[in-house]
Amino acid sequence: MDRRTLILSGIATLGAAGAASAQPAPSGQTNMPIAGPTPPPVTPTPAYAANPPAETFSREEIVNNVSDFLGVTAETGGGAVERVFKDNGRPTAYIAGEEASGAVALGLRYGRGLLYMKGKPPVEIWWQGPSVGWDVGGNASRVFTLCYNLQYPDAIFQRFPGVDGSAYFIGGLGVNYQRANDIILAPIRAGVGMRLGANVGYLSYSRQRHWWPF
Fold first, then answer.
1. How many CB atoms lie within 10 A of CB 153?
2. Tens of pLDDT, residues 112-138
């Protein structure tokens, strides 16, 4: 075989090999790329549980605290607490404080106390507000306020409208309700003085004392 024949034979062999490599893959098969290093697994973001609801106070705890703070018998304090518990259940907090108020049709009320919640330190709190109605007199009171649906202390700092139809006499005990944004406050007052009437108004609870009541 001469040189020309050998050259032509080699060219034919190379052409056949190139054509074979250019043929498409059979149906149902793909040309897979060479696999690289496997990426590390993605760590899922941990799911944090929602804050648990605030712990509540039992009737016995509240009756004992009301009796001690207001200076009344357990029977007298228990009667007021029983009514509030019947209407609203177990409170999540309470405020123990003092206040002064007076009215001749237009009334004003100022107070100061400590807010107590289980598992949290006491928080100093002030309140003030106006009222209007058929109302005359004045009184200085110790106030024990039951708080419902209050899940954290800062939620108390807002205005709470209420209707007060209690009659205050010497050594009297009265209860009324205030409500704002699903939070219910039930002040229980034992006061010295005389105040008789019915009024509507609100109390604004704040971190500092404010003389301007509106």
1. 19
2. 999 999 999 999 999 998 876 665 667
- pTM, full prediction: 0.69
Please report how the helices 59-70 and 74-88 are oriented relative to each other, as an axis angle in degrees rounded to 10: 130
Tokens of 73: 């018998």
Least Cα distance to 197 among 171, 169, 160 occurs for 169
Beta strands in the chain (DSSP E): 93-116, 123-148, 159-164, 173-175, 177-180, 183-206
Question: Judging by beta carbons within 10 Å of its beta carbon (0-12, 13-18, 19+), is residue 133 exposed, middle or buried?
Answer: middle
Question: In the 3-class helix/strand/coil scheme, how is 94-126 assigned residue by residue?
Answer: EEEEEEEEEEEEEEEEEEEEEEECCCCCCEEEE
pLDDT score at 7 = 52
Round to whole Å and give the CA distance between 177 and 159.
13
Helix, strand and coil content of the chain, in percent to the nearest 5, comes to 25, 40, 35
